[in-house]
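Quick one: Arogenate dehydratase from Forsythia ovata, structure tokens please.
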Amino acid sequence: MHIKFGFISIAFPSPPPYSAATKLFHRHSLSAARAHTQRVPGGLEEATRITEGRGFHKDLNSLPKPLSAADLDASLSNGSKVRVAYQVLIVRLLQVKAYPECETVPCDQFEAAFKAVELWLVDKAVLPIENSVGGSIHRNYDLLLRHRLHIVGEVKLKVNHCLLGLPGVRKEELKRVLSHPQALDQCEITLNKLGVTRVSAEDSAGAAQIVASEGFRDTGAVASARAAEIYGLDILEQRIQDDSDNITRFLILAREPIIPGTDKPFKTSIVFTLEEGSGVLFKALAVFALRGINLSKIESRPQKRRPLRVVDDSNKGRATYFDYLFYIDFEASMAEPRAQYALGHLQEFARFLRVLGCYPMDTV
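--- reply ---
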């Protein structure tokens, strides 16, 4: 599919043909039963015991079962709400800032959220892309290139990390704390003071669910207050992040791009590779500077299919370089001539160029 902005025609990946059956929406089960067992001292195997206590969720099977990449089967849905896939617990963020009446579908991995949109099981996906303390989520940059989705919006959320535990547990009793590696890094000072062992999990909400399901009193989680509410855990301490100004940026992904406008501030995200030569990266960045376009993000990722480039120079011998993909966010709409001219100029020396999306900016 090609979309023409002024004189420049940009290639967007076209969605593959889908059968009528595949286009049926997937009704996500909220009551899937899963057996949880734990080994208790003495070597006895028994069903997981849910600790009785104030606010503790007694039936974890009634909570949403995360959608996995291997479990993307479609079934009929008669609902009219926008269905949004997510991999971390950001329900309130979605309701307040993105889709007030959306139906949320949890996914156990980032890639499962991408696939859910591609297979028409959900309408949108909301996934983290960078954090003001921990930096970029590299996995999602790689998935943006691998999958044929478009960025249609962004949402910025101020992060408030909480230390969670089973009801009645004091934080001094904890011996290990689970969470996403970035969340653990962002709370390093507090966790060092407690002297706990840090254990990585797929995401912070998943860590809270593990603490609730296993029922070990010496295990806590770094997650949101919303996770504590859902899984029936106590908040042992709030705002444990090292930096109070901790913001995570999320991208909203869809199957089709939105039509760019000029009625509000827009941002455009692109990815490209460059031809060999001296100063080519300088030239690539200069096409934006020459037209007064501000770059808000620059990220480089190695090309996995072509990680190394060997250059044979008769005067200096053979040299080996890393070959990179460059991701850039710039503050201009593709409806503006200056953005069209900039990408037209960039195409002159870029081996590959793809517009990932043009979307309204979220100003926190």
